[in-house]
Amino acid sequence: MPAAGYGIAFLGNMYEPRTYRHRISEDDLVSFDVTVRETDLYIRAQSKLEKQALESIRRHREALENYIRENSLFLHSLEPVETAAGAPGIAREMAEAANIAGVGPMAAVAGAIAEAVGRDLLQFSPEIIVENGGDIFMQTRKTRKIGIYAGESSPFTGKLALEVTAEDTPLGICTSSGTVGHSLSLGNADAVIVIATSTALADTAATAICNKIKTAADIENEINNAGVLYSVSGVIIIKDTEIGIWGNIKLVGLK
C-alpha cells in the first residue's frame, strides 16, 4: 500500500491570473509551469520535466491543429461530430467524449491535453498531476486532497476538498462553471465537478451538466441523471448555498 499523505490543489474553472496555483501546498513533488500559446499547464512530478512536457504539448497540439485546419466543424460545433478518416488519437478521444455528453468536441480540449501530456510524462515519473485551467489528470501513489473552488463568494470554496486515493487513479477531475471564468457555458452553476477514468469525458460531462443548471432547484434532477447519462464515476454540483453529490465521491474538510 502507498504511504498515506495529503497534498492540496484547488479545483475550479479558473481565470487569469492563476494565483490559485500558488495556494497549492505540497512539498513531496516538484511543481513547474509549461506554456505553449493557449495551453498553460501546471504540472507536478518527482522531478522537473519541462523539456519533456513541452515536447508532448507541441506534438499533441500540432496533431490537433492540423486536423482542425482541415475539419473546421470540429472547432466550431456545439454538438457532437464524427471524426474524419485518419483523425489523430486526441481528436478521436475528444469526439467520443463529446458524443457521450452531447456537446461539441472542443469542450474536451483542456481535459484531453492534460491527460495526453500526463500519460506521456508517466514514463519519467510514477506520479503525475497535470492541471489545465482547472481540469486535472492525476496519477498518484498516495492519498491527496483537491480543494473545491466555486468562486470567491461560495460558502464551499476553501472549506471542502475532494479526497483521492492512489487506488482511484489514474483519473480525470474536471470543472465547469457558469459564474467563474471565461469558458462558454449555457448554465449558471458555480461549479460542476466530474470524476471519470477519461479526463476528456470528465471535461465534456462537466460542461453538459453545467449547461443544465439554471438555479439550485435543478441540482437534484441532474445529480439523479448523472450516472445514467454520462458513464462517469462521480459528480459534485454547486449553486449558491446548495450542493449535490453523486457517485464515488469523498468530501473532507480543509483545515
Question: Could you please describe the fold and organization of this structure?
Answer:
A hairpin with a 2-residue loop joins strand 4 (128-132) and strand 5 (135-139). Helix 1 (50-70) crosses helix 4 (109-121) and helix 3 packs parallel to helix 5. An 8-stranded antiparallel beta sheet has the order 2-3-4-5-8-9-10-11. It is globular, with a radius of gyration of 17 Å. Helices cover 31% and strands 25% of the residues. It has 6 helices and 12 strands. Residues 1-25 have low confidence and may be disordered. With 255 residues, it is an alpha+beta fold. The longest helix is centred in the N-terminal third of the chain and has 21 residues, at 50-70. It has one domain: ApbE-like domains (T-fold, Roll), CATH 3.10.520. The protein has helices at 50-70, 72-76, 89-101, 109-121, 199-212, 219-230; strands at residues 8-11, 30-36, 39-45, 128-132, 135-139, 144-148, 160-164, 171-176, 191-196, 234-239, 242-247, 251-253. The two termini are 26 Å apart.
Brief synopsis:
With 255 residues, the chain is of the alpha+beta class.
Order of helices and strands: EEEHHHHEEEEEEHHEEE
- Spatial ordering of strands, largest sheet: 2-3-4-5-8-9-10-11
* Structural class by helix and strand composition: alpha+beta
CATH superfamily: ApbE-like domains
Mean pLDDT: 87
* CATH level-1 class: Alpha Beta
Give the CATH architecture.
Roll
Q: Judging from the principal axes of the Cα atoms, what is the shape?
A: globular
What's the helical proportion of residues? Answer: 25-40%
Largest sheet entry: 8 strands, antiparallel
The figure for the number of domains is: 1
Helical region count? 6
User: In percent terms, what proportion of residues is strand?
Assistant: 25-35%
CATH topology term: T-fold
Low-confidence stretches: 1-25
For the terminal residues, how far apart are their CA atoms?
Answer: 26 Å
Number of strands: 12
Gyration radius (Cα, Å) is: 17 Å
